[in-house]
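User: I've been trying to design a sequence by hand for this structure and keep getting stuck. Would you show me what you'd pick, starting by listing the structure so we're on the same page?

Assistant: Good idea, let's start from the same input. This is the structure you sent:
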């Protein structure tokens, strides 16, 4: 996936694309993937980097949503369980089966969760990942050595999926690119182009790196910008009522020994009525999440002190060793693009996570809401509008069974798994030069060859692209990422033919971002 080659396609201003997608997170990538599966010509434009926003800041779960079942959102759970099963088949290198344990402290809870999770199993049908069952107090303690034992009566085990969100986004982008889509990061939409009838017929865009401007034509334009959807809607119709209510979720990352074992912990009811997860992920423990309304959408949201305290306090109620602020290696925050409730004061945990596709008078198509697990179905439902807008025949969707870039039946071991079929090429690159075989950081398995690969093949152009999303060091250990930044910047400068001034600017930019992932005090 080469940025320079894709940029050349913008020079042909007479080309009319079938679909132009604004936004390179899970929603936009789902649209691009489905469109390319139907033989449509597609261009996708992302203002910063792929999955820079919410799509790289999830709980790392591919799940049906146990809590949505409790809320009675059966349709969403059915849909998500089907998508979960297919995603594990289409991207086995980036997804895995993760057992969860709900600790049981009363016999009523045993009955309640056992029955609920049997229904969850049944709803998954043939795509089920494993049977849920009650386990004894002894087995619960054996599998979750650090769980609080006072009053513990046992646990209920169930199965869901786990994934690397940023690398899955990249894999989808590369799959679409491999199939002929034009995929671009650091390309901002500056305006909509309309015909004499007020119908959207194209976009004015700017390359954020070299500041060149382009205009493109498209039969259908999709606004898939997540929490920033209102900005594009304002471009379309100034003064439009706001549709999006940003809701912030944070996660704390700490050492795995706070939980022990390979199973994840699910706390089904916190004091604010949400669920809390403690999930082993890439050698660390990810604990979250919160649900806090925020007034403004930000590209780099920050965790609030009260959110950090809430997660630490809730986790302490279930673990033998209470984690403190000093134990947190990184904290990251993401913003969910919830549909703005009609009634003031509606609780965000009660707002449906189902997606919506909205058609404006100008024929601009906006995709809002949804969740990572259903990204493909969201894309399919959006592309279905093409027939109505372009008044052309539309082939049936073929994205449900599309194998994603890197798919292999022989999953590499260790951290190489995330590269799938590309792992061998990166390992060979590491053997070609001693410098590329060096570790990026002594506490992480990643090699310098992965940086070169990210620049050459994965459209990484900034230090943050590498340390946050190509490898996940920033959200696993923010200090380790800061310590590695200069090493990364220097090898990237060689690849991108940049000077010392570029290196220093990148280091300053990365420091500002990385400090937001550290807990103060």
């Amino acid at each position: 996936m080469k940025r320079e080659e894709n940029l050349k396609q913008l020079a042909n201003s007479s080309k009319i694309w079938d679909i132009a997608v604004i936004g390179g997170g899970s929603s936009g990538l789902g649209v691009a993937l489905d469109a390319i599966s139907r033989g449509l010509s597609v261009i996708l434009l992302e203002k910063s980097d792929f999955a820079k926003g919410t799509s790289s800041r999830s709980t790392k779960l591919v799940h049906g949503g146990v809590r949505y079942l409790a809320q009675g959102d059966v349709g969403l759970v059915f849909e998500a369980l089907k998508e979960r099963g297919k995603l594990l088949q289409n991207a086995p290198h980036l997804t895995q089966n993760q057992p969860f344990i709900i600790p049981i402290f009363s016999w009523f809870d045993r009955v309640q969760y056992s029955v609920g999770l049997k229904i969850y199993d049944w709803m998954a049908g043939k795509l089920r990942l494993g049977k849920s069952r009650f386990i004894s107090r002894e087995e619960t303690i054996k599998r979750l050595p650090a769980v609080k034992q006072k009053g513990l009566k046992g646990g209920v085990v169930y199965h869901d999926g786990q994934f690397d969100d940023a690398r899955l986004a990249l894999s989808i982008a590369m799959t679409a690119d491999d199939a002929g889509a034009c995929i671009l990061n650091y390309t901002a939409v500056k305006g909509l182009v309309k015909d004499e009838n007020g119908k959207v017929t194209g976009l004015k865009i700017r390359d954020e790196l070299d500041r060149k401007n382009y205009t493109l034509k498209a039969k259908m334009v999709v606004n898939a910008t997540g929490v920033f959807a209102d900005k594009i809607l304002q471009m379309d119709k100034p003064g439009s009522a706001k549709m999006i209510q940003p809701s912030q979720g944070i996660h704390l990352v700490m050492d795995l020994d706070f939980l022990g074992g390979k199973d994840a912990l699910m706390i089904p009811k916190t004091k604010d009525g949400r669920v809390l997860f403690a999930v082993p992920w890439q050698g660390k423990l990810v604990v979250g999440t919160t649900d806090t309304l925020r007034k403004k959408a930000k590209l780099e949201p920050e965790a609030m002190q009260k959110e950090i305290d809430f997660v630490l306090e809730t986790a302490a109620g279930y673990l033998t060793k209470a984690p403190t602020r000093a134990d947190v290696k990184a904290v990251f925050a993401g913003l969910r693009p919830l549909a703005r409730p009609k009634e003031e004061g509606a609780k965000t945990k009660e707002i449906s996570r189902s997606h919506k596709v909205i058609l404006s008078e100008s024929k601009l198509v906006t995709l809002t809401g949804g969740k990572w697990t259903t990204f493909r179905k969201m894309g399919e439902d959006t592309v279905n509008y093409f027939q109505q807008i372009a008044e052309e025949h539309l082939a049936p969707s073929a994205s449900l069974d599309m194998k994603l870039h890197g798919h292999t039946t022989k999953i590499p071991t260790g951290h190489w798994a995330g590269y799938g079929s590309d792992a061998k090429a990166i390992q060979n690159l590491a053997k070609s030069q001693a410098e590329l075989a060096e570790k990026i950081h002594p506490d992480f398995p990643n090699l310098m060859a992965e940086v070169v690969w990210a620049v050459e093949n994965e459209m990484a152009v900034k230090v943050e692209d590498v340390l946050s999303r190509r490898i996940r060091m920033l959200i696993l250990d923010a200090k380790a990422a800061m310590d590695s930044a200069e090493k990364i910047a220097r090898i990237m400068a060689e690849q991108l033919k940049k000077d010392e001034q570029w290196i220093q600017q990148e280091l300053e930019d990365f420091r500002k971002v990385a400090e937001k992932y550290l807990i103060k005090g």
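That's my pick for every position. To get oriented when you compare it with your attempt: The mean pLDDT is 94. The chain is about 35% helix and 20% strand.
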